[in-house]
């Protein structure tokens, strides 16, 4: 790499220090910090995937991965990503580690702090993560909670940056449930100059406190934030159409009612017909056909499989930022 890139990396590192910080919500991270994580992620993808380099940046380190809920992408991306960087992942199910049941969350946090370098926890309650973070002396990553899913958003942002070449000025339309993925978009998009239009059925709106904070952020960063219950209104002129499952784990009982309440929310080519000419589609998966039809899901406009792969590069970028002093070699991304 040229000296200029190295200096650039160094200057950036001095202003952004993510080492040993927990990553529970994007609410706690400023624009420069989010951009730095994305830049490190893009850099690792470039060096490892495209150039075939071996970068054992996490050699000798281990991660404890706590999963109260099962997951394909979160487990695979973290486990393969940590290994690829030379580290050792330990996967813990509720059978191995029953948080707060056979050992208190406080005790678990303290024990793991002596045995691992970092913890990723995918939990039901966000308060479990806050408790872990409070008691642990090592960084904690939110692998998903009822309130937020920040690692998913890093993958979404990298995917859009790669596709559009820049994020600033894009308009994202969320058409679906006011859930944890939406909450994390609301805590990050304005910071990167991205507009957000939300359409949720009545009774399925995002959390009131999250909405209040998102309104404050959109004022601060001069972006648009629109909330309605009209899918076509949200899609109008938007660059990105996003949805997610309507029935999350633990909500199976409500399936019939939810499918009825979400009538008219399926994303189809008709939804896309009012979007911007360059519109694309995102979904964090697993996907059901009532949320988006096959025509959109498998179309060239759908970025879902790149988005799924980017879960790996962004979790790697995040872990490298949290555990090392790595300087990315690629120039700063155009965000």
Automatic annotation (TrEMBL):
Which GO biological process annotations does it have?
citrulline biosynthetic process; L-arginine biosynthetic process via ornithine; urea cycle
Q: Domain Aspartate/ornithine carbamoyltransferase carbamoyl-P binding spans what residues?
A: 21-162
| GO cellular component terms listed in the entry, alphabetical order | mitochondrial matrix
Q: Which Gene3D superfamilies match?
A: Aspartate/ornithine carbamoyltransferase
A Pfam family found in this protein is: OTCace_N
Mainly localized where? Answer: mitochondrion
PROSITE patterns according to UniProt: CARBAMOYLTRANSFERASE
Instruction: Tell me where in this chain the Aspartate/ornithine carbamoyltransferase Asp/Orn-binding domain is found.
Output: 168-321
Query: Which SUPFAM superfamilies does the annotation name?
Result: Aspartate/ornithine carbamoyltransferase
Give the UniProt family note: Belongs to the aspartate/ornithine carbamoyltransferase superfamily. OTCase family.
Protein name as annotated: ornithine carbamoyltransferase
Q: Organism, per UniProt?
A: Astyanax mexicanus (Blind cave fish)
């Amino acid at each position: 790499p040229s000296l200029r890139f190295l200096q650039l990396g160094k200057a950036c590192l001095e202003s952004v220090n993510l080492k040993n910080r927990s990553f529970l919500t994007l609410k706690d991270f400023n624009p420069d910090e989010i951009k730095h994580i994305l830049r490190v992620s893009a850099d690792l993808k470039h060096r490892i995937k495209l150039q075939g380099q071996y970068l054992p940046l996490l050699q000798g380190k281990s991660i404890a991965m706590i999963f109260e809920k099962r997951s394909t992408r979160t487990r695979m991306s973290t486990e393969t990503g940590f290994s690829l960087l030379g580290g050792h992942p330990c996967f813990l199910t509720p059978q191995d580690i029953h948080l707060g049941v056979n050992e208190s969350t406080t005790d678990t946090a303290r024990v793991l702090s002596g045995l691992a370098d970092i913890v990723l926890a995918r939990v039901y309650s966000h308060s479990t993560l806050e408790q872990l973070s409070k008691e642990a002396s090592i960084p904690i990553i939110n692998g998903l909670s009822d309130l937020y899913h920040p690692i998913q958003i890093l993958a979404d942002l990298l995917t859009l940056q790669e596709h559009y070449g820049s994020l600033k000025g894009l308009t994202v339309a969320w058409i679906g449930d006011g859930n944890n993925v939406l909450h994390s978009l609301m805590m990050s998009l304005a910071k990167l100059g991205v507009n957000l239009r939300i359409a949720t059925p009545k009774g399925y709106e995002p959390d009131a406190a999250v909405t209040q904070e998102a309104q404050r952020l959109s004022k601060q960063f001069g972006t648009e934030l629109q909330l309605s219950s009209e899918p076509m209104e949200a899609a109008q002129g938007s660059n990105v159409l996003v949805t997610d499952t309507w029935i999350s784990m633990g909500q199976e009982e409500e399936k019939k009612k939810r499918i009825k309440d979400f009538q008219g929310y399926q994303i189809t080519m008709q939804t896309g017909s009012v979007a911007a000419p360059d519109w694309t589609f995102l979904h964090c998966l697993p996907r059901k056909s009532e949320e988006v039809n096959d025509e959109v899901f498998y179309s060239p406009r759908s970025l879902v499989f790149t988005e799924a792969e980017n879960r790996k590069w962004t979790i790697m970028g995040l872990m490298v930022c949290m555990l090392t002093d790595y300087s990315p070699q690629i120039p700063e991304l155009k965000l």
